[in-house]
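ok so dumb question maybe but i'm new to this and my supervisor (M.) told me to 'just get the structure for Glyoxalase' and walked off. so i did the thing. is this what she meant?? sequence i used:
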Amino acid sequence: MTNQPARPRFHLAFPVHDLESARRFYAGTMGCETGRESEHWIDFDFYGHQVVAHLSPEECGRGETNPVDGKAIPVRHFGLILDWTDWEELSERLKRAGADFLVDPHVRFQDQPGEQATMFVRDPSGNALEFKAFRDEGQIFASE
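this is what came out, is it supposed to look like this??
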């Protein structure tokens, strides 16, 4: 196997109600490059991972949640763990774009194991995305 990335890359397909609003959000607001596309889907380079917006309006907007830190967090969500600087830059980009935050950017577990910056945002089809950054990546799976 040649040209393998340092870490495996993930592929995620998700439903959207409208491809052009998905393009505006993922390519425009998020800054993701586009790849192949058809009249039914668009590939996006999501920080080196392949995510694919599939036109499927009937699957959008499912809203099951669980409580986390006193907030209703969507059970179905995806996102990335970024380095701290990239997280701060994305947070500012999303704020400037007027993103639909479910959880505003903030730091959890400050001065504790697993200290992390986090934010949740919805795309135009209601898909929830979480972005995190850890002060110490060795603490990603810290329990106490």
